[in-house]
Specification:
This protein is of the alpha/beta class and about 240 residues long. The protein is built from 6 helices and 9 strands. A 9-stranded mixed β-sheet has the order 2-1-3-4-9-8-7-5-6, with helices on both faces. Helix 2 links the parallel strand 3 and strand 4.
Length: about 240
Amino acid sequence: MSRLNLGILQVNHDRSVEVGDAFPDDAHRFRDLFDAQEQRFNYRVYMTIGGEVPRDLDEQDAYLITGSPLSVLDDLSFLPVLYDFIRACDAAGKPLFGACFGHQAIAMALGGQVGRQDWNIGIDHVEVTAALPWMQPPASTIGLYQFHHDAVTALPNGCTAYATSPKCAIAGFAKGDHIFTTQAHPEFSDPFMRCVLDYTRPHLSAEEVAEAEATLNRANDGQLFADWVTRFFGGTP
């Protein structure tokens, strides 16, 4: 079976012993998500946190921008080259998916806005407000891991929100059939979520920790979302 070539733009390099040394990195978490049953794609990882992006859009069939504990609101050295790449994908109609930081970076690159909000941590119930062609099987509500302090506050022109929750008004958006995003972390697992929560605990209030922990027994629909992303890229789950 011929596999699509997927380029993963990694915008995080966790050097912490507690998290970075204990779990796979962001790119490998997505590979583990997609390949839970069998390998779906041929992968190439670009260390975009160091300024690496594809030199030619046709190096890969589709691209994915990972999450990161960094913020698009900060003056990060790699953001200009990443934004240029995002705009090139948009102009060429190249399939591009972004999660969390990737979702926010795509919004910023295309003229949207991102702002700071209250923490959203744990499994959030996200309402699907617009059914997109690749969302098969369909779902009206999905539970997905979240860990973010920033959020998209205004969409770029030509983009449509397809998901929302009480804690995240723009929980995902799309543009045509070539851009698809989510504020969530479908690649998270329960052990990883709990580890990151413990690592971040000193920076959170007791109420924020308790609220997050109370959500962790909810159903996680990360694998369903992975199927949606696979179909968006043009692959077969």
